Amino acid sequence: MQELIQKLAKELDETVATGKDSLESFRLKFISKKGVISQLFDEFRELSGEEKKKVGKALNELKQAAEAKLKLLQESLESNAGEGDVSIDFTLPSTQNKIGNLHPLNLTRYKIIQIFERLGFNVADGPEIEDDWHNFSALNFPENHPAREMQDTFFVEKGNGEGSQDILLRTHTSNVQIRLMQKQKPPIRSIMPGRVYRNEAISARAHCFFHQVEGLYVDKNVSFADLKQTLYHFAKEMYGKDIQIRFRPSFFPFTEPSAEIDISCLICHGKGCTVCKHSGWVEIAGSGMVHPNVLRNCDIDPEEFTGFAFGMGIERVTQLKYRVNDLRLYSENDIRFLKQFKTVM
Ligand code: 2NL
């Protein structure tokens, strides 16, 4: 029995607990009613007086040592809680950082800005909530123009018709050009990208907000030839050198003469398809020579200076470049749509 006590004392000494399970098996083996120490006490009771003297002390020491060890193991396990218990599998693949990409409208906007910056245009910005004068009157819109109706424009505040003006969500970025011409005299060569608002029912082809880039070049001797060459250069940079463009006479209150700009259809290369409605051409921008009244409204003498201006929809330019066939996709935040532009640029 003495030998067994010694052997158990050694084993007890060497025990380390690596978790709740090993602590429990230690308890079962040494401390519990059916454990080895309890068994030894049963056997001890059967021994003769002489023999009891020999092993009694050692057996009591073993029991105390076992109880002390259990306490020690419990404490060390508690202080390591959350560490010793958690097993980390270093062979698992790491969590991937998902890298996003630019929104297609931003891709197009940056591309447009890049093209015009190389031609010496800078970027100007202005308010989206605007007064009637900067959005309509200064741009030579007549008093009764339909764009000034509630059906077409979102009004924020109604003016009283005397001192105060209507306040509205801008319907184009031309308000920025007006503000620029008021504070900066020619030469002016700027583009104005930004969000604009129209009171439209939302569908695949119309939305109540969209994005525009307008451009303005005012200086001495700016001609329609400058306008044509600038936009031809833009079309080639945007869609490739084989693109063709054409100017169609049009009307805007703020330009005279005015022209709509078409590019040759990128889908069918002029043969005729549903995108170009079998005409071979698709509209990309509006343009013209700045109306003398607009220059006068900004205190620029139309006898001394002339200018051209143009405006294009960023959604439209994007649609033709990447064949997006529904305007709503741009603002639905559907990741399946957005991530398709990852490889662009
Ligand atoms: C279109 C047409 C256009 C302009 C915008 C402009 C601005 C000033 C003076 C004269 Cl301050 N013109 N902007 C000129 C012609 C067309 O936009 O269809 N945009 C999507």
The level of helicity is 25-40%
Q: Which small molecules are bound?
A: 2-{3-[(4-chloropyridin-2-yl)amino]phenoxy}-N-methylacetamide
Distance between the termini: 84 Å
Number of helices: 11
How many strand segments? 10
- Residue stretches low in confidence (pLDDT < 50, at least 5 long) are none
Order of helices and strands: HHHHHEEHEEHEEHEEEHEHH
Tell the overall outline.
rod-shaped
Major sheet:
7 strands, mixed
Radius of gyration: 41 Å
Strand content is 15-25%
Brief summary of the model shown:
The protein is α+β, with helices and mostly antiparallel strands and 345 residues long. The protein has helices at 2-14, 20-31, 36-46, 49-79, 104-118, 132-135, 174-183, 224-239, 292-297, 314-322, 335-338; strands at 122-123, 129-131, 155-157, 167-169, 188-197, 209-219, 245-252, 255-264, 281-290, 306-313. The termini are far apart.
List the helices and strands and how they pair.
Elements: H1 2-14, H2 20-31, H3 36-46, H4 49-79, H5 104-118, E1 122-123, E2 129-131, H6 132-135, E3 155-157, E4 167-169, H7 174-183, E5 188-197, E6 209-219, H8 224-239, E7 245-252, E8 255-264, E9 281-290, H9 292-297, E10 306-313, H10 314-322, H11 335-338
Parallel strand pairs: 1-5
Antiparallel strand pairs: 2-4, 3-4, 5-6, 6-10, 7-8, 8-9, 9-10
The protein binds 2-{3-[(4-chloropyridin-2-yl)amino]phenoxy}-N-methylacetamide.
